[in-house]
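Revision sheet: structure tokens.
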Amino acid sequence: MATVSYRLRQLEEIEKDIVKAVRAAGQCLQEMSSDPKSRLLTDYTTTFLTTLQSVDQRLSEQITYLSHVSTSQWHGDSVYLAEREFQLTCQRTNLVRQELRKLSALITQDGMRSRQSVMTSDTLKTVELMDTAESAAL
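Predicted:
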């Protein structure tokens, strides 16, 4: 496993190569404006493209490493399943909440006055608890 200082040195080298690529692109544009058929133009273009390819590869390696370190899984693994399960749980919670509200409305409509206050207050407390839990989860 690479040390933090090693990873930071790699990022510094990548940063230097990005500067090198930008300079090569600038030199390429200058050469193109003065002599579009010069050999220097080809050299600067080649330098730019090879440096850019190297930066891309090394940044991808850094991203893969960081994703592994932060999730204890390699970059190819995904959190999609966990996110999807959370969404489904939220949907189920909303369905239960809707059914509880319907039940509360039925109790009110049926005229069960004595049981209504107890059942409605319990149902409303349950809905409030579910709302509180959902807002805390988000």
